[in-house]
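Lab notebook, bench 4. We co-purified these components, and the gel suggests they stay together. Before we commit to crystallization screens, I want a quick structural picture of the whole thing.
Request: model the full complex, all chains together.
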Amino acid sequence: MFKRIDPKQLQENVFSLIGDKWMLITAGTKEQCNTMTASWGGVGVIWGAPAATCYIRPQRYTKEFIDREEYFTLTFFGEEWRKALSLCGSKSGRDVDKIKECGFTVQTAECGAPYFEQAELVLVCRKRFAQPMDPANMPEDVKEKWYPQKDYHTMYIGEIVEVLTK
Ligand SMILES: Cc1cc2nc3c(=O)[nH]c(=O)nc-3n(C[C@H](O)[C@H](O)[C@H](O)COP(=O)(O)O)c2cc1C
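Here is the predicted assembly.
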């Protein structure tokens, strides 16, 4: 059902794609994976390759999966899945089987990375960089507004190895 396209063929506006539409960050295996909603991130170019960035706080269960695995996926959905994305952004996989609750069907990319059949766009990413953001390099207003609990995000950069669309 999905077709593979070149990243340069992507037509969507990335600001609304990530910021308004939201995405699921998913990592693990077909048998055991976890997913969470994110609305912060980016798409661009680094080290001579198309890349996506995302930011994950230390307490997220998904972080354990993304840290363990070489690959992760970013998936984007139609508006009819907004409720599911809200659930994946408010419940932890530690407590709830979110994939089952949402009715998602797990598929795997060539590299084995899990994604959901119900998505309309999939970015398959190979993790190339991970680093906790250092509060010493953040402005005071950002620390006050976003990190009252000092739970600084880890930044991940993934090389986009496959773009799948319907
Ligand atoms: C719209 C939206 C955007 C979010 N963006 C992020 C994000 O960029 N980074 C992050 O760490 N958490 C983000 N969250 C929170 C996680 O999705 C949420 O804590 C989730 O329950 C974590 O699930 P997990 O523990 O199964 O990984 C967002 C939540 C929502 C609803």
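The mean pLDDT is 98. Worth comparing against the SEC data before the next meeting. The chain has five helices and ten strands.
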